[in-house]
């Protein structure tokens, strides 16, 4: 009705063609089109779901037949005899709607091995690609097909970017946009082995350091900017975050098509929610899990804090309580509310006898089964239980699923929060803090790290400040340890060139800072000189306009020193002032709150250059 008797035209070379009637299909780009398409395709889905001529896969007493995303459709069929009636149904739909099945794009993958090569002219394959994911039963091939090609493409793109003179901040940004983004989609659906994860991180870090030696540990780079890092995202942390989010969705949508299967598997060990509260080991659970589910449970163990207390120790799925090298779970006991190890002890801290156990819990179990559970409890845990139950009252209660004080199922437990929990486990204090802490007293590190981010300045300027604070700036004294370079200062040609000498104590540098201090303080009729703390960390003053302006000039001056050293020229104050003037002129063109706020303070001091 909505598309009846409509016409269209084509724009060609700034002109429009004669209008023509649209007799079939739908308009390209029309916002109504996808809804009309879905409205029609939904009839096919309803027909397949309620058709008695064929059977789908029966899993945990629930039949699965079809999964659709836009025009991509997957059918789950019981056996090869179901293919023909399904094709008959689809052909009937095609005749009614005009949507034709493209048999050349159809593929079949079997759950079990078969000698047949095709069914109804549809090829049988060991590997198919669906929605961008390669699906195959071979674990090695699955990793290779879904990640190796992406690794090669990412490396190729990074090498192209390295031909440009990028700052380390720019390379960190690109490692996320051009690198990490390519691995997000497959890692949401698949387990990622350690070898692949390490290769991904290596490619990212090699790119960040321009394929040169890594000057800082990867966990230092992952720190927040306020802690001296560049907020580099490690793939391990990102992948673990995805797996925790999968657990969250699995708990919230337990009856949905893609989550009822794992939830039914986890019911064999008390359910996913209960298992997450246990002290489990994925390799010792009494059920067989897919690698994806194992990785999700391992990620949970890494981030969840199990507060160990003897009387709250859970009996089931406990890695320390094993029978035949497997942790135990007995559904009959669990349904009788026998959950904790303490349920097998009396108030005096002694193990219950078989008769007492039967009388207290009303759980008729064979003596052999009861005895095997009792023997599986380690002697050390029995001693702890006896001491705990003897000296304090026993209050048994299952812990809640909280991560760092935030409920797993709440909206506050988002991607960013979960990833920060993983990153905080590996947080490292930069060595630069100890180096400068031995030379400068009372450094306010948070303000020092964040100083360059207050200004609209080139990333190269921020990079010089970053390298100085981490004591990784490539001065001659540092380079001479690794290559044939004289450690003599580039400016004075007399003393050894370390960071302190190059940027502060060199005769040339000292004269420059003296001129800059006069240039700044004379504007407000104040006498003052710069100290090493002002140059390395930040300048502090009650006059916030002066403080902001001076810190800006010092940051730009350190980059100017870096540039002159690279050009092997002596820094001169007059040339520096000219460069500052050009930078200020360019900043005045930028319509940015940060920039406008700084220029207002700058003009308060210099009354517009």
Overall description:
The protein is mostly helical and 609 residues long. The chain has five domains: 33-125, no CATH class; 138-215, no CATH class; 236-306 and 404-429, no CATH class; 308-398, no CATH class; 431-606, no CATH class. Helix content is 48%, strand content 7%. The protein has 25 helices and 16 strands. The strands form eight sheets. Strands 1-4 form a two-stranded antiparallel sheet. The chain has a two-stranded antiparallel ribbon with strand order 2-3. It has a two-stranded antiparallel ribbon with strand order 5-6. Helix 3 runs antiparallel to helix 4 (168-189). The termini are far apart.
Total individual domains: 5
- For this structure, the quaternary state is single chain
What is the strand arrangement across the widest sheet? Answer: 1-4
Report Rg. 34 Å
The number of strands is 16
Distance linking N and C termini: 69 Å
Q: Can you count the helices? A: 25
Secondary structure category: mainly alpha
Helical amount: 40-55%
Mean of all residue-level pLDDT scores: 90
Low-confidence segments, ≥5 residues, pLDDT <50? Answer: none
The major β-sheet equals: 2 strands, antiparallel
Shape type: globular
Q: Strand-residue fraction?
A: 5-15%
Organism: Cyprinus carpio (Common carp)
Domain Reverse transcriptase: 1-135
InterPro entries: DNA/RNA_pol_sf, RT_dom
Protein name: Reverse transcriptase domain-containing protein
């Amino acid at each position: 009705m909505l598309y009846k008797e409509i016409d269209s035209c084509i724009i060609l070379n700034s002109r429009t063609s004669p209008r023509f009637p649209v007799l079939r299909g739908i308009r390209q780009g029309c916002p109504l089109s996808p809804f009309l398409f879905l409205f029609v395709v939904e009839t096919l889905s309803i027909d397949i779901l309620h058709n008695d001529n064929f059977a789908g896969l029966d899993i945990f007493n629930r039949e699965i037949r079809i999964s659709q995303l836009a025009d991509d459709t997957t059918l789950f069929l019981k056996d090869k005899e179901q293919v023909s009636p399904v094709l008959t149904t689809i052909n009937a739909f095609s005749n009614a709607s005009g949507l034709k099945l493209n048999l050349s794009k159809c593929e079949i993958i079997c759950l079990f091995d078969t000698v047949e090569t095709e069914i109804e002219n549809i090829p049988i394959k060991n590997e198919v690609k669906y929605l961008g994911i390669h699906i195959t039963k071979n674990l090695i091939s699955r990793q290779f097909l879904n990640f190796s090609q992406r690794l090669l493409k990412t490396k190729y793109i990074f090498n192209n970017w390295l031909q440009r003179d990028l700052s380390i901040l720019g390379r960190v940004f690109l490692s996320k946009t051009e690198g990490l983004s390519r691995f997000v989609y497959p890692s949401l659906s698949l387990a990622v082995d350690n070898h692949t994860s390490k290769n991904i991180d290596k490619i990212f870090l090699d790119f960040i350091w321009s394929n040169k030696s890594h000057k800082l540990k990867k966990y230092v780079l992952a720190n927040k900017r306020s802690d001296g890092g560049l907020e580099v995202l490690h793939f391990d942390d990102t992948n673990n975050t995805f797996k925790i989010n999968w657990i969250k969705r699995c708990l919230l949508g337990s009856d949905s098509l893609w989550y009822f299967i794992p939830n039914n598997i986890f019911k064999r060990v008390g359910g996913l929610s209960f298992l997450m509260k246990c002290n489990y080991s994925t390799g010792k659970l009494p059920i067989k899990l897919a690698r994806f589910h194992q990785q999700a449970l391992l990620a949970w163990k890494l981030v969840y804090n199990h507060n160990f207390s003897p009387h709250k120790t859970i009996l089931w799925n406990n890695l320390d309580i094993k029978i035949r090298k497997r942790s135990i779970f007995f559904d009959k006991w669990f349904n009788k509310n026998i959950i904790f190890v303490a349920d097998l002890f009396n108030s005096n801290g002694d193990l219950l006898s078989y008769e007492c156990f039967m009388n207290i819990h009303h759980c008729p179990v064979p003596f052999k089964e009861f005895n095997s559970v009792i023997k599986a409890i380690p002697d050390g845990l029995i001693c702890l239980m006896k001491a705990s139950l003897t000296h304090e009252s026993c209050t048994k209660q299952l812990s809640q699923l909280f991560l760092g004080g935030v409920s797993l199922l709440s909206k506050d437990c988002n991607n960013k929060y979960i990833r920060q929990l993983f990153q905080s486990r590996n947080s490292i204090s930069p060595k630069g803090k100890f180096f400068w802490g031995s030379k400068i007293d009372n450094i306010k590190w948070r303000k020092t790290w964040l100083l360059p981010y207050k200004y609209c300045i080139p990333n190269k300027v921020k990079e010089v400040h970053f390298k100085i604070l981490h004591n990784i700036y490539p001065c001659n004294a540092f380079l001479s340890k690794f290559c044939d370079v004289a450690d003599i200062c580039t400016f004075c040609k007399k003393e050894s060139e370390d960071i302190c000498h190059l940027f502060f104590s060199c005769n040339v540098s000292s004269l420059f800072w003296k001129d800059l201090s006069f240039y700044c303080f004379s504007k407000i009729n104040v006498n003052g000189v710069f100290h090493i703390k002002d140059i390395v960390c930040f300048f502090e003053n009650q006059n916030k306009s002066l403080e902001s302006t001076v810190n800006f000039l010092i940051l730009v001056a350190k980059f100017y020193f870096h540039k002159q050293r690279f050009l092997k020229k002596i820094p001169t104050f007059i040339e520096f002032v000219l460069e500052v003037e050009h930078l200020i002129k360019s900043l005045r063109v930028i319509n940015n709150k940060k920039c406008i706020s700084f220029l207002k303070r700058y003009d308060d001091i210099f009354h517009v250059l």
